[in-house]
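User: Fold this; tokens only.

Assistant: Input:
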Amino acid sequence: MPAKAMETMLRESLWAQTLAAEELDRVVRESYERELPAGGFVMRRGEPADLWLGVIEGLVKMSLSLADGRVSTFTGVTSGGWAGEGSLLKPGPWRYDGVAMRPTRVACVPRHTFERLVSTNLDFDRFLLSHINARLSLFIGLMEFDRLLGPDARIARCLASLFDPILYPQASSFIRLTQDEIGLLSAVSRQRANRALHALERAGLLRVEHGGVEVIDLEGLRNYLGEEGAGSPSPCS
């Protein structure tokens, strides 16, 4: 019998609205929960991609470790978010790592369950198309501000990206991320993240609080350029 929190998360997911009650019950029965410590791998590059993963509680960083030791971070998946659908739409291994940034619980939908939904439910397929399109738009935005913007603006855009209603349906004005986590997601040091957050606070866009930040002006974060401007990124440390 699935854990209650996992069942609630599955039934309240956006894609669950595309399923008939009997089919959703079957998905719940076939799924299971995993608990991971901070630093644990939700998915690991090179291993078989055999699960569609939803974050019940916690935070997962999607990244790629390079041969020279550097880590390229793509995005973070917060509570209520899903990941892995792109890899499940074709056979093969994971091409990136998913690492828990704090103690995390994930819902695991097996590949065979996911493939059944894709092959039998047109409304579910429409949801997936919207989800993948939102992810693509996020990645394009991340590439843009990584290459063109300074650290303050990168932090602002990273935080703003966590409010996409399809990718992060449980988002609220308070973002429960530590400064270490914000730095990792934005590819800057903790010290640089701290300076950026206080610059954004002085600009009236957010309020730094214990355990996270309270977003005051979401559109302001999305459009923030900072003192560095949009031409030459500053060092991250």
